[in-house]
Amino acid sequence: MTELYDVQFTKRVGTRDIRDGIKNAAPNELCPYCGEGRVTELDHYLPKSLFAGTTVHPANLVPSCHDCNFEKKAYQPGLTNPAVLHPYFDTAFTTNWLAASVSESSLHLPTVKFTVKHFGSDPDLEARLNAHMDVFALRRRFSVWAAQSLTNFEGYLRTAHGRSMTLNAARDHLERTALQQSGERANSWEGAAHEAMRASDWYLSGHLGLS
Ligand SMILES: [Zn+2]
Questions:
Q1: Could you tell me if residue 84 is inside a domain?
Q2: Which domain holds residue 33?
């Protein structure tokens, strides 16, 4: 079946239409695994090297960005490996489970760290969400992207508009930015990052000196 996929499914025009249809089904071409990358390929939810029988099953083909597909590799869910979220079947994509906080690095610089909110009532879901973050390297990738958000805000504070900003005005600005960046999307890293910046006394008062 794997050979069928490689030779027949990826090369023939008829099946290319099916593959393109699945890729184009992602809203706004956004990768459903990370919510940020642009869809460029199809991921085999269950790896084709291990589950040949599911290779061409549409439910096993998930639109993905290159980075998520690369990080996931041939991850195989099992007894000790919780399954990552499946965009077709999991409702957790629409509940807010992503949290972020600003902390001080060893170089005394701000850094944004991402975690999964604690689900005391559903430890299985919490384990799957943590696996999702780990398998797609989302803690590292979100933190790298959020570093740009920190840089952008500090740059804004140096502009004519930003120079006179008070602590309260900065909190309002970051709250608006969080809403604008996340829109109605749950678990937006940008929304979580700006909310974390807004909530951090150390970042706003201690590091940036706002009052
Ligand atoms: Zn992605």
A1: no
A2: 2-72
Are residue 190 and residue 100 in the same domain, yes or no?
yes
Q: Decide: helix, strand or coil at residue 108.
A: coil
Are both 56 and 112 inside the same structural domain?
no
Do residues 174 and 113 share a domain?
A: yes
The pair of structure tokens assigned to 193 is: 């990052």
pLDDT digit string (tens) for 145-197?
999 999 999 999 999 999 999 999 999 999 999 999 998 889 999 999 999 99
Integer Cα distance of 67 and 40 in angstroms: 10
Q: Compute the distance from residue 64 Cα to the ligand 1 centre, in Å.
A: 6
In which residue are the tokens 């409702």 written? 91
Tell me the residues surrounding ligand 1 (ion) with CB < 5 Å. Answer: 31, 33-34, 37, 65, 68
C-alpha to C-alpha distance for 33 and 114, rounded to whole angstroms: 15
* Rounded-to-integer distance, Cα 46 and Cα 4, Å: 16
Whether 77 is covered by a domain: the verdict is no
Same domain, 61 and 100: no
Q: Compute the distance from residue 52 Cα to the ligand 1 centre, in Å.
A: 24
